[in-house]
Amino acid sequence: MSDLAVAAVLAGAILLASTVSVELGISVALIELFAGVVVANALNIDVPSWLAFIGSFAGVLLTFLAGAEVDVPQLRREWKASLSIGSVSFGAPFVVVGLLAYYGLGWNHRQAEIAGIALSTTSLAVVYAVLVESGLNQALVGKRLMSATFITDLCTVIALSVLFITPTIWIVPFVLVSIALIVVLPKVAPWFFGRYGNRVIEPEIKLVFAALFLLMWLGGRANSQAVLPAFVLGLTMSGHYAQHRLEQQRMRVVAFAFLTPFFFLKGGMSVSAGALWANLGILALLFVGKMVPKLGGVYPLARRFTAPHAAFTTLLMSTGLTFGTISALYGLNAGIIDRTQFSLLIAVVVLSAIVPTAIAQRFFQPHADHELRRDRGPAPEPALEGEVA
Amino acid sequence: MPFDRIVVAVDGSEAGYNAFAKALELAQVTDATLLALAVEGPLPAYAATIGEIEEVKREKDEFFGVLADRVRTEAKAAGIGIEVEVRAGHAADVITRYATEVGADLIVLGHKGHFLRDHLLGSTADRVSESAGCPVMIVR
Fold first, then answer.
1. Residue A85: exposed, middle, or buried by beta-carbon count in 10 A (0-12, 13-18, 19+)?
2. How confident is the model at residue A25, as a pLDDT?
3. Which residue of chain B has the CA closest to A353?
4. What is the DSSP letter of A26?
5. Which of A28, A34, A128 to mutate to test the interface with B (most CBs of B within 10 A)?
6. Using 50, 70 and 90 to split pLDDT, how confident is the model at A381?
7. DSSP letter assigned to residue B46
8. Does A136 touch chain B (CB under 8 A)?
9. Residue in B closest to A23 by C-alpha
């Protein structure tokens, strides 16, 4: 099939995924992932090089956007709970899944590390959707959950960047340019966006894209990758975007309309349905390998920091989607894991987006009004008659 | 049958407006208190980015803000006092819960006939009529 024919098929799949997403009320990313599985396995289409390229950039852009969505002041306020829950939420499944993959499944240590990273993530967006829909994003339990999820995400990008680095001399310019962009871009952005922004040609989006492509290129030359500086760059830009919602909205339009569909389609197309079917036992084992340490590690901390909603917190911290997909795709693109291992990891990631969320919402979701009242504390005693209030 | 408190569900659809018009008539005839409930449907489940959630939420807030204003204006023009509430969540659950909270003795809502979703999950009107603790009027 020619490149244009594949592009036409994929464009149709993306369009269909959007409409199905609206009709069913399910995230378009999940439908695109599923559409990728169907298209690749039914039509026997391999991932073309242009799709791999766009998908790789979209993955870095998603990482940048995740950083840009961090509520930094909130993170500072809740640093103790966030750090405790977030780091254990990453560390416990990382160790358990890594050991399970290495000793139990016979994967090599790099493959086991990819499995550990991909299955230790927590989905910021899945958690956020549950909190916003229930109104709990305004309550302390919701704020602590979000902050803890940011920490887990940060651990993920640090692990991806540090564990697989085999540095060349290019690591020096990569680190220097990363630091320069992280320091300079937030300072330059207000002037640049003020002078050149708010136009249909979107220079402000091009500035961010140029920075991300530069990081990807230097990261590639350094045998590293751009996820960590992209995430931190997003983090440092989060304050700017919080004050300029229109700019953030335009960036999202470009990302969601053209780039991220290809990322998730690429992820889905790299899944082998046959390999999944042949390895259902391993799939179940990996799912348990993710859930048990998440539940066992986070629950005691959740009892301390988000009581009485420890079960709700723990289940939501067990969700995963975007960063799990990014991590598994990194392993596949770098030749660390094979297609069967990738398929298993993606399937567990998707299952972990759905199963704990459904259980948390159905059985453990707190009532937002009660939580907000609890956060405000007990109402003051009414003043006695004649008493000066 | 006289009614004291009528809850009407509005969602911006033609069926929703038909239901609202019928509820206005009933409120005029029975001198009942009219409470309009606009339910922002659920946000996309299992989203991959916060952006997707925030943008959908923003669009819903804008849409339902305009809808609430329109409902207030039309009720005022008809000489009916009205309370308008906008809530998020799954429509059937929110409608029945709200009706219980406010002590409604009638729920009025439209039937859109959404082919795909109705076949998969059943319509909102079906689910409200099954779970509500008061009479339900479904307007087509």
1. buried
2. 86
3. B46
4. B
5. A128
6. low
7. T
8. no
9. B117
| A55 CB-near residues (< 8 Å, 6+ apart) | A47, A262, A263, A265, A266, A267, A329
Contact A129 B116 (CB under 8 A): no
**Residue A232 — left, alpha, or beta (φ > 0 → left; ψ -120 to 50 → alpha)?**
alpha
Reported CATH class of domain A72-245+279-372:
mainly alpha
Cβ atoms of residues A328 and A342 within 8 Å: yes
Mean of the pLDDT values across residues A176-193? 93
- SS3 (DSSP) at B122: coil
Please tell me the pTM assigned to this model.
0.86
- With contacts defined as CB-CB under 8 Å, which chain B residues touch A24? 116-117, 120
Give the rounded distance of the alpha carbon of A99 from its chain centre. 23
Instruction: Give ipTM to 2 decimals.
Output: 0.83
**3-state DSSP call for residue B47?**
coil
Q: Which CATH architecture has domain B5-139?
A: 3-Layer(aba) Sandwich (3.40)
In total, chain B counts a number of residues equal to 140
Domain boundaries along the sequence of chain B: 5-139
> Around B114, how many Cα atoms within 13 Å sit in the side-chain half-sphere?
17
* Digit-coded pLDDT (tens) for A303-335: 999 888 999 999 999 999 999 999 999 999 999
For residues A74 and A138, the answer to whether their CB atoms sit within 8 Å is no
Contact A225, A20 (CB under 8 A): no
C-alpha dist (Å) from residue A111 to A52, A106, A108, A337, A342: 21, 10, 5, 6, 10
Helix (H) or strand (E) run with residue A110 in it = helix A109-118
Residue A382 has pLDDT above 60, yes or no: no
Q: Which residues of B touch A129 (CB under 8 A)?
A: 43-47, 53
Which pLDDT value is given to residue A380?
A: 52
Cβ separation A24–B53 shorter than 8 A: no
Q: Locate A381 and state its tokens.
A: 């005693």
Query: What is A118-180 written as a DSSP string?
Result: HTT---HHHHHHHHHHHTGGGSHHHHHHHHHHHHHHHHHHHHHHHHT----TTHHHHHHHHHH
Question: Under DSSP, is residue A48 helix (H, G, I), strand (E, B) or coil?
Answer: coil
CA atoms of B95 and B102, how far apart (whole Å): 11
Where b means 16+ CB within 10 Å and e means fewer, B4-24 reads: ebbbbbbbeeebbbbbbbbbb
Are A125 and B52 a contacting pair at CB < 8 A?
A: yes
Please, are residues A348 and A283 in contact by the beta-carbon 8 Å criterion? Answer: yes
Please name which of A184, A181, A172 lies closest in space to residue A219, comparing C-alpha atoms. Answer: A172
Residue type, A88: V
Q: Give dist(CA A60, CA A66) in Å, integer.
A: 10
